[in-house]
Amino acid sequence: MRLKQNVLLAPYTTFGIGGRARYLISVTNSTELIKAVSLAKKNRWRYFVIAGGSNVVFGDKTFDGLIIHYQIKNQGSIRLRRIEPLIKCEAGILLSHLIKTAISKGFTGLETLSGIPGTVGGAIVGNAGAYGQTISDCLTRVEIFDPNVRHPMSHKRWLTKKLSRLTYRDSIFKSKNWLILRAEFKLEKGDKKTLNKKSRKIIKVRSEKYDSSLRCPGSFFKNVLRKSVSRATLAKIDQTKIKSGKIPAGYLLEAVGAKGMRVGGIYVADFHGNLLINNGHGTYRDVVTLAAKLKKLVKDKFGITLEEEVRYML
Fold it and tell me: Which residue among the candidates 169, 182, 199, 308 is catalytic per the annotation?
């Protein structure tokens, strides 16, 4: 662990946007992660943890605090129970590694998340999902570190899925500064060959839709829950576009002509309305300006207020 000062943040994110961090420290396991947070608390610094760097947009000015960059070294730190398909893993491992491990053992429940970037912890924070499933579907509990409790022995504890308040692309972890250390999943037994085939197909579809080399944070806006909109609004929606009870944000954006729209160095992809891309010169101001324009267009046409899936961090 080495504390760095005045570090440019853009290289640490998939969007390639951000000013500088007053302090930055890289950690490779949960013990170092806790030490880094303890350092921030001791010095009364703001802190924020990033891993893969997707789903976050940093401001153009200096982040006056500590950025903790969490990249776990031991990707093999996954424990399996032989009696039942129960998996326990470090939150810092890549989601893709967890999925591959589950499939290799013939465990089903995570394969639809194939191709989603980032770590297990990050996926839980945003309750990542695809094709009608979310990571919370098979999550049983998470181990957290709470830096705010007074007694050191109470810093770590396990939370049930219910207490984690996992809803559509949201969780209690977005409003609390708790750290997710480990996670436990209960899966079902499946056919390894079938699971591999399904996973490869999903990854292929994703790669055709989205080039991972682009400077992009992932889907920018959340899809809209059908049950949250009025009948009058639903009448304006092409019903064939609604999937698993959700109205795709990409569909709404494309319907208002979002594709190709640009503000400064940030533009909407010409192949998907819900992808904002940085041409290498984009700024935080460009992002929020373009996002506001897109939200207004959708609001004016459909009466729907889009909500960002990405997190703004100033």
Answer: 169
